[in-house]
């Protein structure tokens, strides 16, 4: 399953009058408001008893600083491992002393599994409720603080949606092996995710978390309004009957536990008319159907019906008769069973005793009818009888008792076959309606259109086209859409292909995607257009575009999603990924191609999702807190500067207003134009609904005027618009925003009006266009971050997503940064080679810190040590005074480690230190200075990470000591002149003054006049490009620890520079045979790859055939049409993760793979080392573990060669290696490779 939010779900950070850096006393006072906080703690073996004590101490320290009480902040604690367990509830204790005593008494639960998904469900159902002590109905904020030490053992999606639906603020704290991606998925916002690499640093998170907890309690942090959550589900049709023991002998407690267990099973299934259907019946001496397959179409309705069941309370248990009833009366057309489609039939029997009638014959009849039966029995049931009923003995489950925890224990084992078993039946008919919506504009052009035509023909050739199977329609669009043929035009594939062969480019200069989407919705996804939407046939739209839309598209895309239409997007040429992700039903359905010539190869990736995916539903998730009120004035340049471009500006304004929650009690909007004077189009109290204000904007005409009196316009806005008489709520403390568009230099002075405006607590945002003066605009804005420059007026629409996010996350009246504000990070080499000089290194850092004006609103400092691993010593928000920082520096010990991996450390700082949750103020425009001190050449590549750090907004200064490479220091530094080199540690004192002065001098103004120097690529056309294929074991042997394999891949991807022109990634699973998860050209961003990795589930299979898997990737994956750049000389890497010895021979496939120049690395659990050496690039790239839990320790060992090995180095290693000669096919490959090298 996948989810996609069409509207951003973010937290809005409002007024903190004294900032996050309040004193201890202020923070205690701030928490006098109320909140209900549940701490959900990882009690699994991931944490361990020693680290659990660290968590306990962390909670005690944090709670000491909050105002806890029955009317203030209430606290509950839940511990989770295989099952969640309440330590105490929100209403268990009414005083701080009682809560602290309870926390100090917490004991470690332990357990191999860490079922976070189950735990999230549990806290929503049992703690964020009135019965659990919650005050949600009184409007008290509901807060969850998750503390995790490892990835979840179960699916978390349903639990996350439940949290959103309950309006809970979710914070995620992680340590050790916790999955950051998983934590971000759970948290309400990325700013509410806090991680440390190890538990020894866990206490540092207190200072980061506390201001946010206070902010929620004080209502300074609120949630945004409803969002759309969409799901894409692969078709896996099956009809399942749950047959439940309803005898009085079972007992009410057991019945309730079974009822809740069934609800949990259904919660984890894909319920729907075209997916899984469920029926439930109770039995004793008679059978009572609770509901049929066709009774309820949605999961929510099914679960409600299950939870509403009452016991039948029959006297006798006649299981045999009940089995006959299920076969003859429930698996029928009238009950909703889909016999005509051959959908698999499954029966889950839950019984608490031995049957009083004969079960052998009814059980045999079920098997003859190919009804696959599962048997869940209590200890009082007859095991032999259960095995006779079950389709296979592996489908018999006997929990210790019918209680929540034992039943939860059998859930994973029951769910897997329930989802996958199909017996001998096949799903015969795969009906769907597919519309192709093709860009026919000049963006494609006549030269490239044949590629588009071939792409469509290749896809259609692969589809089962027919009036009763797959129907196809096609529309071209540019300025306007034109129907080529409808869904009911052709009934034969041959006729459809004949039309496609004659297809010609429509032509046209415009590209109105929004109107085209609306057109196909109205004219093709309708009965008149041949659609079978009313028959619940899946509806799919495939949009292929080569440029950005020139009209508004979001509303049309959302309308299609709400109608259940699955929109796939294929982009080429100038197509914009962000735009396509908003249009697509789900971001996973977006495909970007290098060029048009690659299009004909795309159908092999598309055919499976096009023929198996369906809508999993669209949920409007209502969130408890309303959007904070705000008054926004759009004050736009209406002078001659915009004379010909005004329609573009007007359309841009229209799109922004479309995104706002316009209503009298929410966001109020005013609009005005200015030139020599001001013309008010609408005051705050005139057009207070979205349709009204949009209609006004649509009809706006340019004001005109030669002069541009910006100063006068600012003064007018303050005196006449941001006032109560014009509908402004400024006197009520409502956030006042000014959105200013400037396309020229002002004819009057702006300093005084701008100053007055800011003093009245109006927050200005500025769009800079054409000839606007940047220096003039900086006088108006609070921060350069609030100035967005348009490349040209026709491209101003590109700024819309960035602006809307900025607008929604603005601090209420937060002051802009002052010139002496800086965030300074010291990244210091802590490898073994530094040991003798480490005291001098610490002294240097201390001296530089003593020269800085350290304070929460001035200079913040962080220190990170690194070697072959990275360790933060403290963060930018850990210490807010100079003495605290100096004391922390003095306490530092050498990290130790063989070599300094400076590249990996730079990447770590960018991702984990220069972020808001770690105290960075980058988003506020505060300079981010990074001082890198190292005593040796880096063991990994620094070029890519140093470029990423600079592009990410940091200003690095390289300081090299002893064996450090001065060229490397210049590469790292913002500009080469910033680099410093000294022969020994003793010379650090001689450069300290120079470095301190440089840090002091690098203000925002100074940096605005400088441009960073980026390293040139190492060789033309290659640079940091790499192709990395993960070949992972998905067999039954690997399945129990598959989550650790998935986490390894996710973490490695997180450390790579993923992109179409950088590192490309593919994942292949294997057992008896290989399965492509995604190809090298399937995803072009790190976020997409990580999302795809998080969706990985073990494919299953009894045997792991490494040899055939190697042969498959060699011949099918490392190929140009599938995204490999092997012919361009890009290094090719294979990371093999296996659970044991191969079930087939590996010699020849391994040799063939290496003949093609691929560098294999092998990771295996309890494997044959000799076999691994045959496969690997060389013996040093063979890694063995006793359990996949040890995989985190291999991350840096795998990353280092991927980051540093070039194609030439790989070839040299292969040439020097000796491995068995392969067969003839390999010899042919070698010959080919030799000719290529010549």
UniProtKB/TrEMBL annotation:
<feature type="domain" description="VWFA">
    <location>
        <begin position="631"/>
        <end position="807"/>
    </location>
</feature>
<dbReference type="GO" id="GO:0007155">
    <property type="term" value="P:cell adhesion"/>
</dbReference>
<feature type="domain" description="VWFA">
    <location>
        <begin position="239"/>
        <end position="414"/>
    </location>
</feature>
<feature type="domain" description="VWFA">
    <location>
        <begin position="433"/>
        <end position="610"/>
    </location>
</feature>
<dbReference type="InterPro" id="IPR002035">
    <property type="entry name" value="VWF_A"/>
</dbReference>
<keyword id="KW-0272">Extracellular matrix</keyword>
<dbReference type="InterPro" id="IPR036465">
    <property type="entry name" value="vWFA_dom_sf"/>
</dbReference>
<protein>
    <recommendedName>
        <fullName>VWFA domain-containing protein</fullName>
    </recommendedName>
</protein>
<feature type="domain" description="VWFA">
    <location>
        <begin position="1027"/>
        <end position="1202"/>
    </location>
</feature>
<feature type="signal peptide">
    <location>
        <begin position="1"/>
        <end position="25"/>
    </location>
</feature>
<keyword id="KW-0964">Secreted</keyword>
<keyword id="KW-0732">Signal</keyword>
<dbReference type="Pfam" id="PF00092">
    <property type="entry name" value="VWA"/>
</dbReference>
<dbReference type="InterPro" id="IPR050525">
    <property type="entry name" value="ECM_Assembly_Org"/>
</dbReference>
<feature type="domain" description="VWFA">
    <location>
        <begin position="823"/>
        <end position="999"/>
    </location>
</feature>
<feature type="domain" description="VWFA">
    <location>
        <begin position="36"/>
        <end position="209"/>
    </location>
</feature>
<dbReference type="GO" id="GO:0005581">
    <property type="term" value="C:collagen trimer"/>
</dbReference>
<keyword id="KW-0677">Repeat</keyword>
<keyword id="KW-0130">Cell adhesion</keyword>
<dbReference type="GO" id="GO:0005615">
    <property type="term" value="C:extracellular space"/>
</dbReference>
<keyword id="KW-0176">Collagen</keyword>
């Amino acid at each position: 399953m996948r989810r996609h939010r069409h509207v951003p779900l973010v937290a809005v950070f409002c007024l903190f009058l004294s900032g996050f850096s309040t004193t201890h006393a202020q923070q205690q006072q701030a928490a006098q408001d109320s909140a209900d906080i549940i701490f959900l703690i990882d009690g699994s073996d991931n944490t361990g008893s020693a680290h659990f004590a660290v968590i306990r101490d962390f909670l005690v320290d944090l709670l000491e600083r909050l105002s806890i009480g029955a009317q203030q902040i209430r606290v509950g604690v839940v511990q989770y491992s295989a099952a969640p367990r309440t330590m105490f509830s929100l209403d268990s204790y009414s005083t701080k002393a009682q809560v602290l005593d309870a926390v100090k008494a917490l004991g470690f639960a332990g357990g191999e599994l860490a079922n976070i998904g189950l735990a999230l469900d549990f806290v929503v159902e049992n703690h964020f409720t009135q019965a659990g002590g919650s005050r949600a109905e009184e409007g008290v904020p509901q807060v969850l603080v998750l503390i995790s030490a490892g990835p979840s053992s179960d699916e978390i999606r349903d639990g996350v949606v439940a949290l959103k639906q309950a309006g809970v603020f979710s914070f995620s704290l992680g340590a050790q092996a916790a999955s950051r991606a998983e934590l971000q998925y759970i948290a309400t916002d990325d700013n509410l995710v806090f991680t440390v690499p190890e538990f020894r640093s866990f206490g540092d998170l207190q200072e980061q978390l506390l201001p946010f907890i206070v902010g929620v309690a004080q209502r300074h942090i609120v949630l945004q309004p409803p969002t759309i959550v969409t799901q894409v589900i692969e078709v896996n049709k099956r009809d399942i009957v749950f047959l439940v023991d309803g005898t009085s002998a079972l007992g009410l407690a057991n019945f309730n536990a079974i009822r809740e267990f069934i609800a949990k099973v259904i919660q984890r299934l894909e319920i729907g008319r075209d997916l899984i259907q469920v029926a439930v019946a109770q039995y004793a001496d008679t059978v009572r159907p609770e509901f049929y397959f066709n009774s309820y179409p949605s999961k929510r309705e099914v679960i409600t019906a299950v939870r509403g069941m009452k016991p039948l309370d029959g006297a006798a248990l006649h299981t045999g008769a009940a089995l006959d009833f299920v076969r003859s009366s429930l698996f029928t057309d009238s009950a909703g069973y889909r016999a005509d489609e051959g959908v698999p039939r499954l029966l889950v029997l839950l019984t608490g005793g031995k049957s009083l009638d004969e079960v052998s014959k009814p059980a045999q009849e079920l098997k003859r009818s190919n009804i696959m039966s599962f048997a869940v029995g209590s200890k009082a049931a007859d095991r032999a009888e259960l095995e006779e009923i079950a389709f296979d003995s592996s489908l018999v489950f006997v929990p210790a008792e019918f209680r929540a925890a034992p039943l939860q224990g059998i859930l994973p084992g029951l769910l897997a076959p329930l989802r996958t078993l199909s017996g001998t039946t096949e799903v015969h008919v795969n009906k769907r309606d597919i519309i192709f919506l093709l860009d026919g504009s000049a963006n494609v052009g006549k030269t490239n259109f044949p590629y588009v035509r071939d792409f469509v023909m290749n896809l259609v050739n692969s589809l089962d086209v027919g009036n009763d199977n797959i129907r196809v329609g096609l529309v071209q669009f540019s300025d306007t859409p034109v129907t080529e043929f409808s869904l009911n035009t052709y009934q034969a594939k041959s006729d459809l292909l004949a039309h496609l062969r004659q297809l010609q480019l429509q032509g046209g200069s415009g590209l109105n995607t929004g109107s085209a989407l609306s057109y196909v919705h109205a004219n093709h996804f309708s009965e008149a257009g041949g659609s079978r939407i009313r028959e619940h046939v899946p509806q799919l739209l495939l949009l292929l575009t080569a440029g950005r839309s020139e009209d508004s598209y979001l509303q049309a895309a959302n309308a299609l999603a709400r109608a259940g239409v699955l929109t796939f997007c294929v982009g080429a040429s100038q197509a914009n990924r962000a735009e396509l992700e908003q249009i697509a039903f789900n971001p996973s359905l977006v495909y970007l191609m290098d060029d048009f010539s690659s299009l004909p190869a795309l159908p092999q990736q598309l055919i499976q999702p096009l023929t198996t995916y369906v809508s999993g539903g669209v949920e409007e998730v209502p969130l408890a807190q309303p959007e904070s009120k705000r008054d926004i004035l759009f004050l736009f340049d209406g002078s001659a500067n915009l004379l010909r471009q005004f329609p573009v500006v007007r359309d841009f304004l229209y799109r922004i207003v479309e995104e706002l929650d316009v209503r009298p009690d929410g966001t109020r909007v005013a609009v005005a134009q200015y030139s020599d004077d001001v013309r008010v189009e609408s005051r705050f109290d005139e057009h207070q609904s979205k349709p009204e204000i949009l209609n006004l904007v649509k009809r706006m005409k340019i004001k005109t005027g030669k002069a541009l009196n910006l100063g006068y316009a600012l003064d007018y806005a303050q005196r006449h618009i941001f006032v109560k008489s014009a509908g402004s709520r400024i006197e009520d403390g409502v956030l006042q925003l000014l959105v200013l568009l400037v396309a020229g230099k002002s004819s009057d002075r702006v300093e005084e009006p701008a100053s007055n405006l800011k003093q009245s607590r109006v927050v200005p945002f500025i769009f800079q266009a054409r000839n606007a003066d940047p220096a003039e605009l900086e006088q108006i804005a609070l921060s350069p971050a609030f100035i967005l420059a348009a490349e040209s007026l026709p491209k101003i629409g590109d700024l819309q997503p960035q602006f809307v996010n900025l607008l929604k996350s603005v601090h209420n009246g937060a002051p802009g940064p002052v010139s002496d504000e800086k965030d300074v990070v010291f990244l210091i080499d802590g490898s073994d080679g530094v040991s003798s000089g480490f005291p001098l290194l610490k002294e240097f850092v201390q001296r530089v810190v003593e020269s800085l004006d350290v304070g929460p609103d001035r200079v913040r400092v962080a220190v990170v040590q690194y070697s072959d691993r990275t360790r933060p010593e403290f963060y930018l928000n850990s210490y807010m005074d100079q003495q605290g920082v100096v004391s922390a520096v003095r306490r530092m010990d050498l990290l130790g480690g063989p070599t300094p991996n400076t590249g990996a450390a730079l990447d770590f700082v960018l991702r984990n230190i220069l972020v808001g949750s770690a105290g960075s103020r980058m988003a506020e425009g505060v300079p981010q200075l990074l001082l890198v001190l190292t005593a040796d050449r880096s063991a990994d590549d620094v070029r890519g990470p140093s470029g990423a750090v600079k592009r990410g907004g940091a200003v690095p200064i390289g300081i090299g000591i002893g064996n450090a490479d001065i060229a490397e220091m210049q590469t790292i530094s913002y500009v080469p002149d910033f680099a410093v080199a000294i022969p020994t540690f003793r010379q650090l004192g001689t450069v300290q003054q120079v470095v301190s002065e440089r840090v002091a001098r690098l203000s925002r103004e100074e940096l605005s006049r400088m441009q960073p120097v980026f390293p040139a690529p190492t060789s033309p056309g290659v640079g940091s490009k790499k192709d990395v294929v993960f070949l992972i074991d998905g067999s039954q042997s690997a399945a129990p620890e598959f989550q650790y394999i998935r986490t390894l891949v996710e973490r490695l991807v997180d450390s790579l520079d993923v992109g179409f022109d950088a590192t490309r990634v593919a994942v292949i699973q294997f057992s008896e045979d290989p399965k492509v998860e995604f190809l090298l050209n399937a995803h072009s961003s790190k976020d997409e790859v990580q999302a795809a990795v998080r969706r990985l589930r073990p494919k299953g299979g009894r045997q792991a055939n490494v040899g055939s898997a190697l042969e498959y990737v060699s011949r099918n994956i490392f190929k140009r049409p599938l995204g490999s750049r092997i012919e361009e000389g890009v290094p090719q890497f294979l990371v093999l993760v296996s659970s044991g010895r191969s079930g087939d021979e590996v010699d020849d496939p391994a040799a063939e793979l290496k003949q093609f120049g691929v560098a294999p690395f092998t990771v295996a659990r309890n494997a044959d080392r000799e076999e691994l050496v045959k496969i690997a690039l060389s013996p040093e790239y063979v890694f063995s573990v006793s359990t996949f839990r040890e995989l985190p320790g291999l991350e840096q060992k795998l990353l280092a060669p991927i980051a540093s090995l070039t194609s030439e180095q790989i070839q040299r290693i292969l040439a020097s290696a000796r491995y068995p000669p392969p067969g003839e096919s390999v010899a042919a490959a070698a010959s080919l490779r030799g000719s290529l090298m010549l």
